[in-house]
Amino acid sequence: MTGSLKTRLRESRRPSFGTWISSASVVVVDALKDAGFEWMMIDTEHSPVHSETLASMVAVLGTEGPTPLVRVGDVSQYLVKQALDAGARGVLVPLVNSEAQARQSVAFAKYPPAGVRGAAAAAASRYGTQLGSYLRRANEETLVGVQIETQQALENLDAIAGVEGVDLLFVGPQDLTLSLGLVDARGDPKVREAMRDVVSACERHGKIPGTLVVSPEEKRSALDLGFRFVSLAADVRFLLQGASEFLKA
Questions:
Q1: CB 3.0–4.6 Å: which of 40, 145, 170, 224 could bond 210 by disulfide?
Q2: Is the pLDDT of residue 174 over 60?
Q3: Mean per-residue pLDDT for 131-155?
Q4: What is the pLDDT, as a whole number, of residue 4?
Q5: The CATH number of the domain where 71 resides is what?
Q6: Using one digit for the tens of pLDDT, what is the confidence trace for 70-106?
Q7: Sign of CA dihedral 95, 101, 105, 106
Q8: Mapping DSSP to helix (H, G, I), strand (E, B) and coil, where does residue 86 land?
Q9: Range of the structural domain that residue 162 is part of
Q10: Left (φ > 0), alpha (ψ -120 to 50) or beta: where does 165 sit?
């Protein structure tokens, strides 16, 4: 585990830009890995990425490409273990609505005594050949993010942000908009105010605020609010936009 993204985020105030991988395509990951993104978030919650494909995606990124991160499908010990054993450098856990769920997320991502993750001779430790060094560094260098995307999460914001071991609070803008009863009105002032509240909670508790944007305007707005971990759209969106531009031309 070299060049820890978590360390860079902790030591630098500069924004960190990555992108979302929703296509379940190893080829897409390979094609985008030299584009300049600092990290890639492989989505296993809403995308048909099974464990073998996930392992291949992480392997393609290796140690020189963007840092591989995984959004797991649930607050699940099994899913977190699968992602980290495959070599992901961090996990993002969706729909974390309470302090208890945040604590579970941390425990599943950490080895004892900080958590309950089990050791394995898997890809993360080069199939056991580097197990000792990996075990000594993993707890410190693995990024743990939780998603704030419901009214309930907003109500428990300080309790969630105060959990030791949570590094990143990531706003899921579309689900948050839905939870606030605004359907797809992501630009509504209520959504912006909720996002500002997340950034403020991160500042109070020393966490990293993150979100996803789908346009240059949303990017500017996110940076103005203080977000420092920003997904620049997603692979499938790039594909659709590129195709649309060529057809219009």
A1: 170
A2: yes
A3: 97
A4: 86
A5: 3.20.20.60
A6: 999 999 999 999 999 999 999 999 999 999 999 999 9
A7: positive
A8: coil
A9: 5-248
A10: left
* Peptide bond preceding 112 in cis form (omega within 30 of 0): no
Q: What is the mean pLDDT of residues 233-240?
A: 97
> Could you list the active site residues?
46
CA 2 to chain centre: 19
DSSP assignment letter at 117: P
Can you list the positions of beta strands (E) in 23-182? Answer: 39-43, 67-71, 90-93, 143-148, 168-171
- For residue 145, how far is the Cα from the chain centroid? 6
Confidence of residue 3 (pLDDT cuts 50, 70, 90): low
Mean pLDDT of the 195-222 span: 97
Q: Using CA atoms, how far apart are residues 242 and 249, in angstroms rounded to an integer?
A: 11
- Burial code (b: 16+ CB inside 10 Å, e: under 16) for 135-168 equals eeebbebbbbbbbbbbeebbebbeebbebebbbb
Of 167, 160, 110, 170, give the one whose Cα is nearest residue 144. Answer: 167
Length of the chain: 249
Task: Say if residues 209 and 16 touch (Cβ distance below 8 Å).
Answer: no
- β-pairing, 16-21 vs 229-234, is parallel
Q: What is the largest CA-CA distance in the chain?
A: 59
Looking up tokens 């797991």 gives: 72
Average pLDDT over residues 116-135: 97
From CA 223, how far away is CA 233, in angstroms rounded? 15
